[in-house]
Give the backbone structure.
Amino acid sequence: MPHIHEKIDYAADIYIVNDNAVLLRMHEKYGTWFPPGGHVELDEDFVEAALREAKEETGLDVKIIGMTTDPLAENETNFKVHDEREVLVPRFINRHRINDSHEHISLEYFGRCETRDINPAPGEKTDGFKWFSDTELEDSQFEVTDRVQLYAKAALKAAREES
């Protein structure tokens, strides 16, 4: 998706865990490993964007790790009157430069799936996927950036703790 805003766009990424491994994709434009993710569209919140991007890029059905219900929904009257819902807080937020005139603020979520069968939507571009273990994330042959390693390891830990 092209940039929505001239200077800063919001993006949502999701570190997907299955059986003690986390899924990363080789980004076709940047030539490095990233989780599935992308721009937040104008008609969606951050969680919706992360789950949509996961589905488009991988074909996987992903569930967010952590709180997944709206605490206000318990009071249905309040929920209906105010037409509000809580948006799940991301595990990490970072701001990074894309080029000299554009930046992204990325919200990082953790999720899990039941299968490793990757089936991207037609037209999705990638230079490949890999399920990384803790030790593979640190293996210099894969050149996973420090930030992606940090987030991926935190996702693996969160998945173990939630099990």
